[in-house]
């Protein structure tokens, strides 16, 4: 199994990008000190944590035409349903498809949003 991790930021992006690690509550606390308007969350377990915590307002899922034999599931068992509103679809090269969704706020816990 191969996994790539970005560990450095190019100098031309240092004023616009920061890496933050930790639990969701810790990350939100750290990020609130920045002036960023968006946060990029990647990875199955991290997405699950954000969805369960009710802190996402938008989600973009990229579908790749490969069935993986193993790995972390993006969606697992949630305590309650999470409703999505489909907003946009982008067809990329090589069969990749990006679907843009808004999280239905009526069905999420009332907490901060990412």
């Amino acid at each position: 199994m191969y996994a790539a991790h970005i560990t450095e930021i190019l100098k031309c992006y240092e004023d616009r990008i920061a890496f933050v690690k930790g639990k969701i509550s810790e990350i939100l606390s750290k990020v609130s000190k920045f002036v960023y308007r968006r946060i990029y969350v990647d990875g199955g377990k991290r997405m699950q944590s954000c969805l369960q915590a009710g802190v996402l307002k938008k989600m973009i899922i990229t579908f790749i035409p490969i069935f993986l034999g193993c790995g972390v599931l993006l969606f697992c068992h949630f305590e309650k349903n999470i409703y999505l509103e489909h907003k946009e679809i982008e067809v990329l090269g090589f069969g990749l498809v990006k679907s843009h969704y808004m999280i239905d706020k009526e069905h999420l816990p009332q907490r901060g949003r990412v």
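The longest strand covers residues 84-91. The radius of gyration is 16 Å.
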